[in-house]
């Protein structure tokens, strides 16, 4: 990791005041601390040496540019922050620098006659979704953290979250262009204003899913997606492996992929159905949501899925016609994590395992046995498993008792990520959420080799020769 | 127990509670305080508790930092939205317990409360109310209301609370309620010597003072053989129901007046002969909706009045936007705030086309009335208590 000069925070704050309005700088100790934290803090606290010099809240691209120019000249690391919800430690800082919080970059305009929407990165995802829905459009990204994560954070990660990639793709497939401030402070535009995508080199693709390594995204242009009709279904299985087989079958039968296909293992399903006053589920389950231009099309797709699933040993597979039942089942999915967490009297840790289609059944088995050979996880037994099975991704969840020491929780979380890496490596996958670096850096090096990792670092060097932008995302 | 012991116990308590928080920030968007500050994370929900956590963990002693912490911790309205969000979306962390302990700790460390709140605590100690009015004057003001006094024949103790006792606008609520109860033939009476329920001292972190006031009231209830209490304020209601020792309150039924009105309407003891042809929007007080889940009762009462068109705020029931008055904030101003919550609420009501904003809490009432003045909405929107609205239909 590069060495950065040590500065007196007060000097930095004073100098920042010369380039930014007063209200765009937070100097208070506690605001600075809060902007240096990420989830799982309970097991991975920061110390005084990691408190940022200042938090800046630019409200225009020009202000972002000023900050980057200043930081680049003085060789001060800049940590871009959306909402700080990265589960892989991308929003956690390990030494002093400036935090650039994008929370006030919030322009928003729907250009209906151009077929796109332009917005700032600082909106919470839910807000963008609501604003689009008011005009009859769909936001094609649906993370569990929808209420809190910033849209810029999601796009930097290029995460499709709950959605099934084979149905609607990744954010990358909808982003037409970006406004980006480079680490040098230079402002660039990428992409196009046409719905006709650029052929050939398009720098947009470097920044969407760029893990925040190459530039600060300050403006996003995204294709408008008209709202669609929906239909729903559910299937119950005797065990975890049958549900994995059913999903394999869906791919093999070329059944139309749903927008969502969520999974709850039997333990999780039982608990979360109970809170929603639903009858006890007969086994593990997948729930799915298909979309179409018309209701008939959506219903047809659900029926096709039911048909494919029914070719595997299944307790029951059906289309849901009662919206009340669907809402309750969906709520059971949404409340599953908090409920197992609170039931287990502790804090949750979740990792993300992705599988190939062919490996799905074995991958499920490996995930179930995630505790094997792991001293801390073994104390907790088998993980709870939920996730986006249709998208071939699983979230094993461990509940770390609140009264465990920070050290012990930390060990458990490290073991969880170790196993995540091991399983993803085995199936040749790499995780479809949360980005590629930070806690995943060692995995990345192993998975792709040092040549590839070296290339990524070289690309970073081209954009950011002084390595001032989000340097802690790499964990060398 | 020495102050050091108390501090150690509080610090352990805070760290213990916050060991349940994973810092996912799911509670942040629901925090009203976050809504009216400039978006700094430390001003809302888990930002408040994380600040507290690090101050405790690092044994922060720097004076400026501690003052910063005081403004953050005492800025919370105690509306409970964060706990509700954490319970349904994350780990179920008891943020408010930590915040209240944090306030207690800051008082022990002589950093809190907010300067203006010190006078309020003094008044609670000296006068038994937070409004700097002597006990004698308070009693005279209540006497002047001409309400029936509680006797051993009375069924319901109408517990006025301090705002009703001293604020002339709020007094219209109890006058209206008395009219309704007389009309419905309810046996009720007041006790001239009631002390503050203690809620403001508890929320400002003066737990000892709260205990003193609660003991005074419990003795008063016992001496008068009280078996049923109806409160005017949701804060007194929550305090009697959840904060007074269960053993002392055994055998005493506690209700908020909206519940009593609902019961009367259901039992057909209360019907409204006149119509009120108004568009009415109901604002849920946090201590009724989020703490006590009393959301439908006031709405049912409003709906039973002919001519009323009941409207809803965008955020209603347990999602209601706090008026900003809880947690001792009636007596403090905070530099970090760029707007007032009540103004946001009033503006929404006006935009909706409501003619009357009804609420059921004296503090919401005061704040909303101020909001009407500040936003120059007096010619468009009237603020009424539920009791006043009902009395208009009698
Ligand atoms: C309980 C919980 C549930 C979650 N569920 C999901 C889920 O279902 N699916 C999923 O994919 N993720 C999920 N996440 C993870 C997280 O929400 C995502 O990774 C999200 O993308 C992070 O967004 P953020 O705004 O919090 O970004 P941050 O954590 O603030 O930042 C993440 C990275 O992006 C960079 N960055 C942020 N904004 C910009 C910008 N404008 N320009 C350049 N770089 C930027 C940051 O520097 C950092 O490196 C969940 C997290 C939690 C806590
Ligand atoms: S929602 Fe709960 S766990 Fe998440 S930050 Fe808030 S208090 Fe912590
Ligand atoms: S109680 Fe209300 S004001 Fe206080 S931190 Fe929680 S949400 Fe914010």
Automatic annotation (TrEMBL), chain B:
The keyword Iron-sulfur applies. Pfam families: CCG (PF02754), Fer4_8 (PF13183). Keywords: 4Fe-4S, Iron, Iron-sulfur, Metal-binding, Oxidoreductase. Residues 157-240, 280-368 form the Cysteine-rich domain. InterPro entries: 4Fe4S_Fe-S-bd, 4Fe4S_Fe_S_CS, Cys_rich_dom, HdrC_iron-sulfur_subunit, Helical_ferredxn. It comes from the Bacteria. Residues 18-87 form the 4Fe-4S ferredoxin-type domain. This is (Fe-S)-binding protein. It comes from Oceanidesulfovibrio marinus.
């Amino acid at each position: 990791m590069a060495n950065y000069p040590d500065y007196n925070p007060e000097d930095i704050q004073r100098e920042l005041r010369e380039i930014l309005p007063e209200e765009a700088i937070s100097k208070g100790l506690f605001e600075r601390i809060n902007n240096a934290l990420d989830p799982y803090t309970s097991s991975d606290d920061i110390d005084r040496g990691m408190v940022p010099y200042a938090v800046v809240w630019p409200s225009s691209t020009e202000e972002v540019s000023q900050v980057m120019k200043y930081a680049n000249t003085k060789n001060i690391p800049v940590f871009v922050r959306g909402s700080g919800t990265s589960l892989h430690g991308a929003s956690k800082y390990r030494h002093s620098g400036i935090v650039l919080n994008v929370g006030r970059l919030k322009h928003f305009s729907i250009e209906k006659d151009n077929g796109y929407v332009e917005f700032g990165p600082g909106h919470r995802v839910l807000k963008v979704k609501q604003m689009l829905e008011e005009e009859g459009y769909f936001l094609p990204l649906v993370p569990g953290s929808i209420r809190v994560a910033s849209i810029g954070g999601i796009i930097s990660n290029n995460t499709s979250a709950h959605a099934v990639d084979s149905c609607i793709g990744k954010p990358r497939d909808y982003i037409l262009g970006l406004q980006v401030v480079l680490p040098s402070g230079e402002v660039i535009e990428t992409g196009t204003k046409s719905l006709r995508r650029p052929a050939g080199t398009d720098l947009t693709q470097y920044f969407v899913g760029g893990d925040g390594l190459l530039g600060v995204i300050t403006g996003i242009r995204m294709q408008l997606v008209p709202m669609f009709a929906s239909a729903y279904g559910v299937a119950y299985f005797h065990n975890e492996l049958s549900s994995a087989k059913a999903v394999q079958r869906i791919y093999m039968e070329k059944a139309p992929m749903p927008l969502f296909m969520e999974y709850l293992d039997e333990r999780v399903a039982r608990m979360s159905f109970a809170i929603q006053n639903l009858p006890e589920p007969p086994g593990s389950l997948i729930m799915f949501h298909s979309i179409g231009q018309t209701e008939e099309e959506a219903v047809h797709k659900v029926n096709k899925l039911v048909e494919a699933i029914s070719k595997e040993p299944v307790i029951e597979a059906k289309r849901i016609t009662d919206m009340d039942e669907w809402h309750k089942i969906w709520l059971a999915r949404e409340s599953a994590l908090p409920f197992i967490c609170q039931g287990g009297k502790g804090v949750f840790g979740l990792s993300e395992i992705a599988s190939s289609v062919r490996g799905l059944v074995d991958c499920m088995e490996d995930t179930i046995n995630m505790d094997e050979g792991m001293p801390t996880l073994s104390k907790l037994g088998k993980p709870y498993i939920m996730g986006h099975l249709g998208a071939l991704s699983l979230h094993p969840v461990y509940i770390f008792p609140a009264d465990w020491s920070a050290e012990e929780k930390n060990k458990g979380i490290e073991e969880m990520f170790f196993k995540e890496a091991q399983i993803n490596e085995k199936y040749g996958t790499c995780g479809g959420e949360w980005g590629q670096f930070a806690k995943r850096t060692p995995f990345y090096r192993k998975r792709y080799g040092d040549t590839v990792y070296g290339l990524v670092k070289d690309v970073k060097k081209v954009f950011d020769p002084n390595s001032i932008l989000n340097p802690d995302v790499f964990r060398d | 127990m020495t102050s050091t012991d108390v501090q150690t116990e509080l610090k352990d308590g805070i760290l213990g509670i916050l060991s349940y928080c994973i810092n996912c920030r799911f509670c942040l968007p629901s925090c009203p305080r976050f809504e009216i500050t400039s978006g700094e994370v430390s001003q809302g929900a888990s930002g408040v508790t994380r600040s507290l956590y690090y101050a405790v963990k690092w044994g922060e002693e720097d004076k400026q930092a501690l003052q910063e912490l005081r403004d953050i911790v005492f800025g919370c309205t105690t509306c409970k939205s964060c706990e509700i969000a954490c319970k349904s979306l994350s780990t179920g962390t008891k943020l408010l317990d930590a915040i209240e302990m944090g306030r207690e700790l800051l008082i022990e460390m002589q950093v809190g409360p907010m300067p203006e709140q010190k006078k309020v605590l003094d008044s609670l100690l000296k006068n038994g109310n937070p409004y700097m009015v002597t006990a004698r004057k308070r009693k005279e003001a209540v006497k002047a209301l001409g309400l029936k006094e509680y006797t051993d024949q009375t069924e319901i103790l109408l517990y006025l609370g301090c705002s009703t006792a001293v604020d002339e606008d709020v007094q219209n609520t109890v006058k209206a309620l008395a009219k309704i109860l007389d009309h419905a033939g309810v046996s009720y009476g007041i006790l001239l010597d009631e002390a503050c329920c203690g809620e403001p001292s508890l929320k400002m972190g003066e737990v000892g003072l709260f205990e003193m006031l609660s003991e005074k009231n419990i003795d008063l209830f016992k001496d008068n053989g009280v078996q049923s209490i109806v409160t005017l304020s949701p804060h007194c209601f929550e305090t009697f129901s959840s904060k007074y020792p269960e053993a002392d309150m055994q055998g005493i039924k506690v209700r908020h007046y909206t519940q009593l009105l609902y019961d009367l309407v259901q039992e057909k003891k209360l019907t409204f002969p006149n119509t009120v042809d108004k568009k009415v929007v109901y604002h849920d007080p946090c201590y009724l909706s989020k703490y006590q889940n009393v959301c439908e009762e006031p709405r049912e009462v409003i709906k039973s009045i002919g001519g009323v068109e009941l409207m809803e705020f965008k955020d209603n029931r347990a999602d209601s936007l706090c008026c900003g008055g809880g947690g001792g904030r009636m007596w403090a101003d905070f530099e970090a705030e760029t707007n007032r919550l009540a103004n946001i609420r009033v503006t929404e009501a006006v935009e909706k086309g409501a003619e009357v904003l009804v609420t059921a809490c004296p503090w919401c009432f005061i704040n909303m009335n101020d909001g009407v003045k500040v936003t120059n909405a007096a010619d468009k929107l009237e603020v009424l208590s539920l009791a006043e609205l009902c009395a208009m239909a009698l």
